[in-house]
Structure formats: C-alpha cells, structure tokens
What we know:
Blueprint: H1 5-28, H2 34-37, H3 41-50, H4 53-60, H5 68-131, H6 136-162, H7 167-195, H8 204-217, H9 222-228
Helix pairs in contact: 1-5, 5-6, 6-7, 7-8, 7-9
Amino acid sequence: xxxxxxxxxxxxxxVVAVLAAVPAACAEGEPRSRxxxxxxNAVESAAEQSRPAESQAAASQPASTQSPxxxxxxxxxxxxxGCVLVLVIVGLFVGGLVLSRSQRRSAWDRxxxxxxSSTVAAAESRVPPVLNTTGxxxxxxxxxxxxxxxxxxxxxxxxxVESAPGESRREWALRLNGLLRELIAAVDAESESIxxxxxxxxxxxRVLEAQLxxxxxxxxxxxxxxxxxxxxxxxx
Length: 236
C-alpha cells in the first residue's frame, strides 16, 4: 500500500517542473510595450505628409487585417487560458496524491483494527488455558497449535509494519509485534522447562509480565502510543 520512494520522487519532480513552467508560459502572452506598438510620432507625421493622395485615401478606409494591438490581446487571452489549464492540472494531480494517501491510511487503519481484535482474542482466551496446563504431556499437546496461531498473528503484524502509512503507525504496529514475540518466547521457555522436568514457577513472572505489557499496549491506538513515546521491547 505504501508508494515507493521512486514514485513519490517522480510525482514531486512533475509538480515542480509544471509550477516552474507556469510563469514562463504566462510571460509569453503578455502584451508588448506600448512604445514598440506605436511608431515614432515625428516619423509617422512625416510619412503621412509624404504619402500621395491615393495612399491617404486608402489609409482612411477601415483596415481589413487585424491590428497588432488586437493580435496581442488575443495572444494574452490564449496565454491566460493556458495558465489556468496548467494550474487546474497541477491541482488535480496534487489532490489525487492527497486522496490516495488518505485512502491508503484508512485501509491500513481498518486492517490494523481487525488484527488488534484478533490479537486481543488470542491473548485473553487462548493463552490463559495454556498457562493453566503445567503437566508435561498436557503442555506438549495444548501449546503447539496455539503457538502456531500466535505466530500467524506475528506475520500479519509484520505486513502491517512494512505497509504503515506514517511513522507513528509503524512504531505502534512494531511495538505490538515485539510484545507478541516476547509473549511467545516466554511461554516457549516455560514449556521447555516443563518438558525437561524443571520448575516452571521460576519462569512464570516473565510470562505474566509479557502478557500484561501486551494487554496494555492493545488498549491504545497508534496516535496515543506515539504521544506516550514508550520504548519498544527487544524482538526475540
């Protein structure tokens, strides 16, 4: 869902190039100076006096061709229209980028909420029965399928981390990913201790701490987590 850096760079370059071309395009259609449109008064008077009567009579008739001033006005109107069209294209392009970013953020938020609900359900309903099973044979049967489901949730959090539309959302998803990994590692260590015939009570505080940290993190959204500025736990 995240746009590649190359695509963003090309979009920014396109906008800069179009905006840089707008002043030049508008400047081309500006009417020339009045000094260039009007001949020198003295020269014009001398030319009129030296014209024959037939030329003066012909000059008094309306001109059939367009005057330079009218042509300049037409060029100015065309240039202004071109500038407006360029600005409209730039506005549509920028608006499309903003809309696309908003849509990607909304889609990511929906996926994140669904995954958070699945993680809450797994942490509250599936992990406690495992912790209540302290027998070697029973733990070896109960824990593996639940562990597989938790690892599947970790994989989904990995995808959300990679596609997060913003640093705050990425840090929030990465934190939940790390806490879920820590819970799996803690239960793994306890299960291995039970399988080896050692006391599981020594390792239970680590499991409870990881479980509590995950429960607390699941109660807040990405914006609240970014405001709190909590450090992220190590990944195992």
